[in-house]
Structures
1.
Amino acid sequence: MFSGRCHKALTDGPSMSGTAETPEELFAYLDRLGIAHRTVTHAPLFTVEQSRALRGSIPGAHTKNLFLKDKKGALVLLTALEDAVIELKSLHRRLGAQGRFSFGSAELLRAALGIEPGAVTPFAVMNDSERRVSVILDANLLRHETVNAHPLRNTMTTTIAARDLLRFLNVTGHAPRILELGSPRHESASPAAHADS
């Protein structure tokens, strides 16, 4: 679907594949991978704007996550810094997709990643055993030491090292494409500004 180099999944010996329906199952998976993680519980958060209230208590880079599909039905999970402006109208040309992207439906999100709207997260790719979803990461996100994302529920935020996010994605067979995705948001918000936190 996308142009660019293919990345081979990296594994650390025996297969670590699995799925997670609960945060606890995700945490156990991270533990098996030897990935340190810290989680804070909070009120449900559905947008980047709502999650800004947590900035004082949860340090590190905070993400926006877009679940997208192109006109041929190819699926993409895009994870960027929360204040990145993502131009959806032109994104398909940068990624070599078949036509413009639109947001995937709630039903498609559940079927592909096993999560609900409002909880879109890179951690959910462990539920994509069929490798239907391609992952795109904002290069700016990886310039931070730690990254925050929901652990399959929007009532929690989990912090891991940026290098461990890459390792997690590789081990699950979702080696990401890393691109400079967008500049920090200014006063005028783009449609992507209302993406999941």
2.
Amino acid sequence: MKKQGKLEAVLWSIALPGFSQLLRGSYVKGVLFVLLEFVVNVMSNFNEAIMLSFLWEIDQAFAVLDYQWLMFYPCLYMFAMWDAYRSAMPETEEYSYLPFAFGAYFITVGLMLSKKVKIFGVVFGPIFLPMMFLVPGLLIGFVIRYLILRAKVPKVKF
């Protein structure tokens, strides 16, 4: 079986958590991720909220969501992506989990704040605001990873 590249692994996992694991032959883990995604998605009414958000019916999107279930989604989703990435990365790569973990944290915070935060007077809702929060989460994770790796480089003395 052909080894997945890092980009391919992440893109399949973005399509549906568990797909990348299934493609590389990790069937138990892949099925578990798919089932967990399905359960959390259905129990939280996530697909309906996505549809309503894309139709810009933000108040209805808020109304249909079950936040007690949806709060699991960011960590599940980002962990499945990290696991896919990890399976394709070189063994020497360090701290690759940081952007994924910070992305999950920030998406969760964006979800919690989605009813309150307005940008230029616009409430972006429970789908778009968490997606917007992913960007600073990833950036902070990459910066922290860079700083840690830079601090580990041995300094050459002359």
3.
Amino acid sequence: MSTPDLSQIHKLLSKHAVPNDLIIVRSSSRAKRLIYKSSLKKGVEIVVPHGVASSWVVEMTENRISWIKIAQQNVREGRGQLNPTQIDLKALGETWSVDYVRVDEVPKGLMVNREHTLTVGVDPKDVFSVARKLQGWFHQKARASLLPWLASLAEGRELGFNRTYVKNQVSLWGSCSEKRNINLNRNLLFIPKHLVEYVLHHELTHLEHMNHSERFWRAFSRVLPNCRELRGELGSLSLDDVPLWDSPGLE
């Protein structure tokens, strides 16, 4: 099975003034079709399956030039947000300032040098190094905040659970398993305190009722009478609003 001439794609991109940076063109014996995709970490990828004609790939790619340019610009702008100067933790009522220095000036890469101020070492050879360091700090911050918060609410309701896990989830704010384990999304720290308490109480109520039956909502309403209203408010938020430096896959 022949491999398409990828140089033809590069010539096409050059013809349309598409910069070389953030573009990956590769062939794949596993690909079943011609794929165009983009991500913050890898940039814009064009994956070409084996056994297709180079002329066809060029024709299809020419039809996607506008998309490629827009995707490339989105990745470029997204990467520009990986080094924030301020981190707003609404759940805790804290705003952190972030200062940047050369990587060799911070032995451990990140330092809390005074109240609500972080100093982070920048490695110019690694665009994602700051994001990884911030994620490490943020994960520990979430554990130190959310775990005792949940435990306190559980104690007040005289409920017991097994284990609690703090994760960087992409689609859920929290969950509760039949084994009475509770998962909490660390990104809860980015949303208002009253909505965090809604999520924590929601998962604690699942210790009594595992489904979302009417019995669940009656029990939930006894704890938070406005729980249905809060549900709508939480639903208006999106995990897409989480800062890009905390995106999964950058750790």
